[in-house]
């Protein structure tokens, strides 16, 4: 088989990025952009101008310097500070390469990140990117513009990580150190971590550091967790003897999937962990949603935004 040249690889990568951009631009409907805008409002008020005081105005808004100069009372006018900073933290660990359908979890994460980035662009917001595995792999400071968004998509799809495992804590700590202004942070991960490659259980004391760091990030920023899943990680097919390999640790296990008891036990344990994770995030005030490869997600995003807007 002939070797693919570097130029051909670059052209193929650019084509893939362009395909994602075209697809996500179609998906970012006015309805989704409207839902995004209504939920993620500005972080404060900017001074705009002064006007003469009228009866009923709050006296705390009086600008005493202008009042003294003009010899009659004036009050300050403010406008909502609309521009936001959106940070996308995307898990590039080896488990993201898995996908039982046409799309891998990493590709789904890239597509959702693209939708969020384009929604942010429509609202004139800045977008930054953090890629991580069991370490911080890559960080892009928040910027605006189409070329920047295309780079975000390209990096998510094609950045070659050094690590295989998953550790969410370092990237959150790095974010908390360098992003001083309050941001809207989307954490896109499958949450599969640790030596067993399973979802973290808030009741397990080994996960204290993770949930403390999530809570701290929630205090400093508006944190939203997007749990990227695949149906085959939740339930086993009935195909007889099956060897499962953890892509992050290389550990293997053999299961007899023809056993109803084993399939049900596997499903029950995964549902328990999913439920525990959602409850644990809720207890520290972190909103979350779950998306699955091969399933439509725009409606789920829109519903999430609308529900969040009503709660607020």
Kindly describe this structure.
It contains ten helices and ten strands. The protein is 43% helix and 22% strand. It folds into two domains: 6-39 and 83-222 and 292-311, 3-Layer(aba) Sandwich (Rossmann fold); 44-81, no CATH class. It starts with 5 loop residues before the first helix and ends with a helix. It has helices spanning 6-27, 30-39, 64-70, 105-122, 146-158, 169-178, 208-220, 231-234, 260-283, 298-311, and strands spanning 44-52, 74-81, 85-91, 126-132, 136-143, 184-189, 222-229, 241-245, 252-256, 287-292. By secondary structure, it is α/β, with parallel strands linked by helices.
Please supply descriptive tags for the structure shown above.
312 residues, alpha/beta, six-stranded mixed β-sheet
What is shown here, in short?
This protein is of the alpha/beta class and 312 residues long. It has ten helices and ten strands.
Architecture blueprint of SSEs:
Layout: H1 6-27, H2 30-39, E1 44-52, H3 64-70, E2 74-81, E3 85-91, H4 105-122, E4 126-132, E5 136-143, H5 146-158, H6 169-178, E6 184-189, H7 208-220, E7 222-229, H8 231-234, E8 241-245, E9 252-256, H9 260-283, E10 287-292, H10 298-311
Parallel strand pairs: 3-4, 3-6, 6-7, 7-10
Antiparallel strand pairs: 1-2, 4-5, 8-9
Helix pairs in contact: 1-4, 1-5, 2-10, 4-5, 6-7
Q: What integer value in Å does the Rg equal?
A: 23 Å
**CATH class bucket of the largest domain:** Alpha Beta
Distance between the termini: 58 Å
Beta-strand portion reads 15-25%
Count of domain modules: 2
């Amino acid at each position: 088989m002939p070797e693919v040249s570097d130029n051909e690889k670059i052209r193929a990568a650019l084509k893939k990025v362009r395909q994602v951009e075209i697809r996500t631009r179609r998906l970012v409907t006015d309805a989704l952009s409207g839902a995004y805008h209504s939920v993620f409002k500005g972080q404060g008020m900017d001074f705009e101008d002064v006007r003469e005081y009228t009866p009923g105005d709050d006296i705390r808004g009086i600008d005493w310097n202008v009042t003294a100069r003009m010899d009659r009372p004036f009050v300050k006018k403010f406008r909502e500070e609309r521009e936001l900073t959106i940070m996308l933290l995307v898990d590039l660990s080896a488990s993201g390469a898995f996908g039982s359908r046409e799309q891998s979890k990493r590709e789904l994460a890239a597509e959702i990140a693209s939708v969020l980035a384009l929604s942010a662009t429509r609202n004139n917001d800045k977008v930054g990117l953090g890629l991580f595995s069991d370490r911080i792999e890559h960080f892009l400071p928040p910027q605006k513009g189409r070329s920047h968004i295309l780079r975000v998509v390209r990096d998510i799809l094609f950045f070659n990580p050094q690590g295989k495992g998953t550790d969410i804590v370092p990237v959150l700590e790095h974010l908390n150190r360098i992003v001083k202004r309050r941001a809207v942070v989307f954490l896109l991960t499958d949450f599969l971590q640790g030596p067993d490659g399973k979802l973290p259980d808030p009741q397990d004391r080994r996960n204290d550091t993770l949930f403390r760091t999530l809570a701290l990030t929630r205090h400093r920023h508006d944190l939203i967790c997007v749990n990227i899943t695949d149906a085959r990680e939740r339930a086993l097919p009935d195909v007889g003897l099956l060897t499962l390999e953890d892509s992050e640790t290389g550990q293997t296990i053999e299961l007899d999937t023809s056993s109803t008891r084993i399939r049900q036990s596997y499903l029950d344990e995964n549902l328990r962990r999913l439920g525990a994770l959602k409850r644990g995030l809720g207890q520290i005030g972190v909103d979350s949603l779950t998306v699955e490869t091969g399933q439509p997600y725009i409606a789920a995003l829109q519903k999430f935004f609308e529900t969040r807007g009503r709660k607020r």
